[in-house]
Design goal:
With about 240 residues, the protein is an alpha+beta fold. The protein has seven helices and ten strands. The longest helix is centred in the first third of the chain and has 42 residues.
């Protein structure tokens, strides 16, 4: 083999290595940036416990639920006529400042979710500031697959999985979480989706109350242990 050919192969392999290192580095940078944003928000609220509680626990009981979007008990947007509005989140609108979040970490999280192919809905106040959001994923989305596998669920092609919901602390306790959820349910129904899967933790009283209000159908409970990125589903309940 000629020397030039050998050099060409080495150069090509080196370029490939550099490409993958840069790609890995970019993803690692985004992950660290998000982690530091969460840490900063937790410190601003004065407690790290809720953040740690989300990442490290042993045999916590998860309750999967499903909502039949074809049989909703309401046909009007629960937020209609109020000072609040549910809007579809768009990457371009966020980047250009048309959709503004009250917390930098939620803006960063929204852009990350949109990049992952998730469907996002935001809750805005009379000033147009987004203080709440809810995210759904297609069953074949890698983000959804992790949770669905953990919960032992298998979504149909016309179903979505709701994996994240947030309300700023100042707006909690006013039934807004239920109204946002129902507004999203109605929007998904109008788009042709038939089912919405989700889950909540049995020891999370506010979330448990919200899902009772939503009249979800509960599925088989699961015991989950987690240590940061490692999740284990235990047999039996």
């Amino acid at each position: 083999m000629h020397l030039f050919a050998i050099c060409g192969i080495i150069l090509t392999d080196l370029q490939a290595v550099i490409f993958f290192v840069c790609l890995w580095g970019a993803e690692m940078f985004e992950t660290l940036r998000f982690a530091f944003s969460l840490l900063g928000e937790a410190l601003a609220e004065g407690s790290l416990f809720p953040l740690i509680r989300q990442q490290v626990f042993y045999q916590r009981v998860a309750i999967p639920v499903v909502i039949d979007l074809t049989r909703l008990s309401f046909s009007q947007d629960p937020l209609a006529g109020s000072e609040y509005q549910c809007v579809r989140l768009q990457q371009q609108a966020i980047l250009t400042g048309q959709q503004v979040f009250d917390r930098p970490v939620r803006r960063f999280d929204a852009l990350r979710h949109l990049k992952q192919g998730l469907l996002g809905f935001g809750l805005s106040n009379s000033s147009g500031i987004l203080f709440g959001d809810m995210w759904c994923a297609l069953p074949n989305n890698p983000v959804a697959c992790q949770d669905l596998s953990m919960l032992g669920l298998s979504c149909e092609a016309d179903a979505l999985y709701a994996l994240d919901m947030f309300l700023a602390p100042a707006y909690r306790g006013h039934n807004l979480a239920v109204r946002l959820h129902r507004s999203v349910e109605l929007a998904l129904q109008q788009e042709g989706w038939r089912k919405l899967y989700a889950y909540y933790w049995e020891d999370n009283r506010p979330s448990r109350w919200m899902h009772l209000m939503l009249k979800c159908t509960e599925l088989e409970k699961k015991r989950i242990s987690r240590f940061f990125g490692i999740k284990i589903t235990h047999q039996g309940i």
